[in-house]
Design goal:
single chain; 146 residues; alpha/beta; 3-stranded parallel beta sheet; 3 helices
Length: 146
């Protein structure tokens, strides 16, 4: 079998309707566009988000501050999740993925300070909240920014 032998299944492909070829075809005169109006004109087309002259939703909704579209969102976990690791262990992204604390981590991990830490751990992460860093140090561990 060669590429030139291939053809679509019978009945799966229809010929396109020929517009503007007389009223006997059912698509003559106005070619299925109806009478007058914006959509009947040649070159017509309404851009995405256009609401007929009404102020579009994207412009009606209030906007505040700065939204960095290039920001890399960090995966956040709490200090309490680190208690599953043995005392004196080094905890990084790979260890968190292996143990099931994280299912995926695209850009890095940020440690947040919710909960308590009872183990002495060496934690490597992209970012720490102040309270998380303090709890790790208080437990006798070390917080390292990677």
């Amino acid at each position: 079998m060669y590429l030139h032998d291939l053809s679509p299944v019978d009945g799966s492909v229809r010929e396109g309707k020929r517009k503007g070829r007389g009223h006997g075809t059912g698509n003559g005169k106005t070619s299925g566009r109806g009478h007058k109006g914006q959509k009947s004109r040649s070159g017509s087309g309404i851009r995405r988000g256009f609401e007929g002259g009404q102020m579009p939703l994207a412009r009606r909704v209030p906007k505040r501050g700065f939204n960095n579209i290039f920001a890399k969102p960090l995966t956040a976990i709490n200090v309490a999740a680190l208690n599953r690791f043995p005392d004196g262990a080094t905890v990084g992204v790979d260890e968190l993925l292996e143990s099931g604390v994280l299912s995926k981590c695209e850009y890095g991990v940020k440690l947040l300070g919710n909960g308590t830490l009872t183990k002495k751990l060496h934690v490597k992460a992209a970012a720490f909240s102040e309270s998380a860093k303090q709890k790790i140090i208080d437990a006798g561990g070390k917080a390292e920014v990677v």
